[in-house]
């Protein structure tokens, strides 16, 4: 056997087999598709929906309606287990089942109220942060307007006003009269207009 064939056989052994005998390639996850969710042992829930439900319950627990209904239920419970026939009483004195129900209600009410308070604190924190940013923007706008007004005032201080021009012209007239420029120069604005027919009367 020639050395070329032996080299070809060795090279063929090194290459991975192709066709039906080839091992399946590991499937790479596609980047254009979301990854399928993993199965969890614990149940999943929507935190936002659970928070809204807890706020509703907390609001109801903090109303007078809840206190009235709870008082009515307790009174009916006690009266029924005291005045009803013995075979119809489901919680006789000392009302252990009633104590257990009230303890269970309190144990659930406290975390729900705390959760509602935490959500309210988060909203208050967000509102305070937005108010702080709004105040910062208002302060920045006020400072900008103050600088612009100061710049306008400085610019107006350098503009030639009517009073300044009039003062300069009066100073120039006085200087010309002092140098011997004939009679006083009168501008058209300073001439007194005579009514028509006054010259004939003067004559």
What does this structure look like?
The chain has helices spanning 3-14, 47-61, 64-83, 96-157, 162-178, 198-202. Residues 10-14, 190-195 and 197-203 have low confidence and may be disordered. The protein contains six helices and no strands. By secondary structure, it is an all-alpha fold. 0% of the residues are buried.
Which descriptor suits the 3D outline?
elongated
Give the amount of beta strand, in percent. under 5%
- The number of helical segments is 6
Cα-based radius of gyration, to the nearest Å: 50 Å
Cα end-to-end separation = 152 Å
* Range of helix content: 55-70%
Give helix and strand order, one letter per element, not per position: HHHHHH
Question: Could you say which structural class the secondary elements and strand pairing correspond to?
Answer: mainly alpha
The biggest beta sheet reads: none
Q: How would you state the average pLDDT, rounded?
A: 76
Number of strands: 0
What are the low-pLDDT stretches, counting only 5+ consecutive residues below 50? 10-14, 190-195, 197-203
What order do the helices and strands come in, and which of them pair?
Blueprint: H1 3-14, H2 47-61, H3 64-83, H4 96-157, H5 162-178, H6 198-202
Task: Please name the defining characteristics of this protein.
single chain
Task: Please provide a brief summary of the model.
The protein has helices at 3-14, 47-61, 64-83, 96-157, 162-178, 198-202. The protein is mainly alpha-helical and 203 residues long.
